[in-house]
Amino acid sequence: MNIGTYLDNVRATTPLVHNITNYVTVHDVANILLACGGSPIMTDEPDDVEDITSICGGLNINIGTLNKRSIEAMFIAGRKAASLGHAMLLDPVGAGASRLRTETAKRLIADFRFTTIRGNISEILALASGGSSTRGVDASLADAVTEANLQAKADFAKAFAAETDAVIAITGAIDLVADATRCYAVRNGTPRMASITGSGCQLSGMMTAFLVANRESPLGAALAAVCAMGLAGEIAESRMQPGDGNSTYSDRIIDAISLMDGATLERGAKYELL
Amino acid sequence: MNIGTYLDNVRATTPLVHNITNYVTVHDVANILLACGGSPIMTDEPDDVEDITSICGGLNINIGTLNKRSIEAMFIAGRKAASLGHAMLLDPVGAGASRLRTETAKRLIADFRFTTIRGNISEILALASGGSSTRGVDASLADAVTEANLQAKADFAKAFAAETDAVIAITGAIDLVADATRCYAVRNGTPRMASITGSGCQLSGMMTAFLVANRESPLGAALAAVCAMGLAGEIAESRMQPGDGNSTYSDRIIDAISLMDGATLERGAKYELL
Amino acid sequence: MNIGTYLDNVRATTPLVHNITNYVTVHDVANILLACGGSPIMTDEPDDVEDITSICGGLNINIGTLNKRSIEAMFIAGRKAASLGHAMLLDPVGAGASRLRTETAKRLIADFRFTTIRGNISEILALASGGSSTRGVDASLADAVTEANLQAKADFAKAFAAETDAVIAITGAIDLVADATRCYAVRNGTPRMASITGSGCQLSGMMTAFLVANRESPLGAALAAVCAMGLAGEIAESRMQPGDGNSTYSDRIIDAISLMDGATLERGAKYELL
């Protein structure tokens, strides 16, 4: 399928996405979901999540500022979403940086078959191996996916996809999107995306909408979302004027998603099957 | 009274507004309150809300990401605000979408006489009738206020105003602002306002400041706030450049409010008594 | 030391800062930390804060939307950070406006030696004297630091610095930065900074990164951060175009920080030893 079609399908169906996410980047997650053609709803109250998940098509669980209440809500919402066959995404923010984050992410993966797990390389390593050099919420340089280790990292991604039965999206300077048998590398994006908060969280929210609108092909949907986010970063970069800095850049990413159509995404997507 | 005067009264008195609101749009609520000339303060801790409400002039209760703690805080703050005769606004975000939201909003309405209740048509229907087709936090198309059903919806708004003894503000493509005997239709705004998160929450925060600064005329104050928000959306739209998208649009709405004076509001307000 | 060097040291070392902060301005705090060259991480779950604080170099405690859970987290994180010798900053948002805020801030100061305490004059007065005219989260006009009372306020700041063994940063139209023996006045900034939410919270986050990167000279680090924030406000002001308002201004402050280097800060900083 044409990569742009995945986006067109989002705009055609307005998928409703339930987000249990952190309070740092939640506003951006809501806005990028609207910008790509989805519809966001947020709740992390255990007594509220079953009803809200029930009216949605997808569940985006992001552990960025997890707490006991929201963890309880993640499991309740997860059980309901799983029972309804919803698209489910896990963003294990900071896995490897604290026991609570690592263990919560592992318990979630043990209890639910996520459609997609999206994180940076250090977070994904922490979940796969139990040991990692995570530096807070940013990936460790030592872990980074590079041209030199691309095939080894792709093999890792496919193995973790096989283990979890999920599409694995590992984002960084080079992004990897894999299922058990295939791994794509994506070379969209710009270095400046690492200098603003929330581009990963935004991608997870948007990706959930892509998964809902393209239930038959989660690998393609995840790949298309990764390309769309990176392309938006490139478009934003191309519009920077003298004096513009991080905050303007951040706004322009959401601007670019709101203006992107399938044809633009198809032309701009830079991916290859490894 | 001139519609613009309601805004001038806000800027002249800097009303302090206590907001118990959701963490998705809270930043925008704070900024629009400052932009219109008010002063925001947020707290949802039961042990903190009495003191904070006491130093304010108005209380804005928004149930967008309610939880057990914040619900408790809503009732404690509500009792204190009611005892002090403060302006009180309820924004029943997602009423109709979950039992907890619908029941919490109904309990709040049962316990307190709100100065104003502001929501989309599906949320207000859920509170009036107990049954609705709410689709998440967005209004259902089937419920929408249109030119064809305008008088019937106005009658509904007046009846709910009579039932609750509150001014009812129902916002959408056409907005309705009613008390028990009069209903205004407002035709400010642009369709793009539905594509960003938080324009409703922002309006509720700003409206509370208008209610505090114009205690003698809540119907006029709510009407003026609705006109101001819609006019800001039009001004923002008029400033969009090629390449600008949702995030720039969102910023420009707050920009427009921060620059708006009473004379501009008076000239731009588009309302009629039905 | 050259004032600009403090900023250069942040960019050279990417200090990781743990923030327990309010959900109103948390997104701006994360972004300004990234913009100045630091790296933010947020968590307020008692079971998560020890691990997260352990991998950081500094702890920024902001009581803006404190609750029982986050208060518990503040003390747990504080004990761990203190035991590790981390830079610790307290931003007592709304101290004086509620008993819970005043008492929590006082308990934190009693339990921990903060590297720096940063607030507006009303908040700092509330902590020093137990009585204040705090108006919500904004400083009372009656308390304001002016040219007429500058020396008296400087003496107060030095006395409170001696009492707490912390650097005291009091921000407003004129900022004061003091230790027990020296007090600087800073005259950077513009009045418009008071019309947006979060410039104080942003400064506290950024200042913590300056403190981590310049452990040997907290007074200079706090002074440099205050100058940087005010200078960013001036740069943002200079870029305002017709039709630009509060939200654009807010974005341009973070833009300016992201583009600022030590030489620019050194040239633009306006401070004097009183």
Write structural notes for this entry.
3 copies of one chain form a homotrimer. Chain A has 11 helices and 9 strands. Chain A has about 270 residues and is α/β, with parallel strands linked by helices. Chain A has a single domain (about 5-274), classed as UDP-N-acetylmuramoyl-L-alanine:D-glutamate ligase (3-Layer(aba) Sandwich). The first copy, chain A, has a 9-stranded mixed sheet, with helices on both faces. In chain A, helix 2 (about 25-35) packs parallel to helix 10, helix 3 (about 45-55) packs parallel to helix 4 (about 70-85) and helix 8 (about 200-215) crosses helix 9. The longest helix of chain A is centred in the last third of the chain and has 21 residues, at about 220-240. Chain A is globular and about 50 Å long. The model of chain A has no long low-confidence stretch (mean pLDDT about 95). Chains in contact: A-B, A-C, B-C. The interface of A and B includes residues 16, 48 and 250 of A.
